[in-house]
Design goal:
Elements (H helix, E strand, L loop, with lengths): L1 E10 L6 E15 L2 H7 L6 E7 L9 E4 L2 E11 L6 E8 L1
Antiparallel strand pairs: 1-2, 1-4, 2-3, 3-6, 4-5, 5-6
Length: 95
């Protein structure tokens, strides 16, 4: 199932920095994270997810994705440009 994700990026380098919208949104697919991704981010099952997004999505590590009433922070990113269906894969942690 696909969901609309709105992208937010940190503004500034202060301890109280906030996130602001980049004005970009993409249709994404969200799945519970694979075991190796849980280990990679030191996460807990139910808090770490894999997200599949379009290859052209302007999403970076550290960005916040808002999906429905939930928000996720991007902790990892892989480019599958040469895949039969080109996409990017993100490892995110639920806030």
């Amino acid at each position: 199932m696909f969901h609309l994700a709105t992208i937010e990026r940190k503004s500034g380098n202060t301890p109280t920095q906030s996130y602001v919208s980049t004005g970009k949104s993409y249709m994404v697919s969200i799945h519970p994270a694979r075991a190796e991704h849980l280990v990679m981010v030191g996460g807990v099952f139910g808090e770490v997810y894999d997200i599949i997004a379009p290859l052209n999505a302007e999403i970076e590590i550290g960005d916040r994705l808002r999906v429905g009433g939930e928000s996720y922070i991007v902790r990892g990113k892989e480019d599958y440009r040469k895949s039969p269906i080109p996409h990017i894969s993100l490892v995110v942690v639920k806030e």
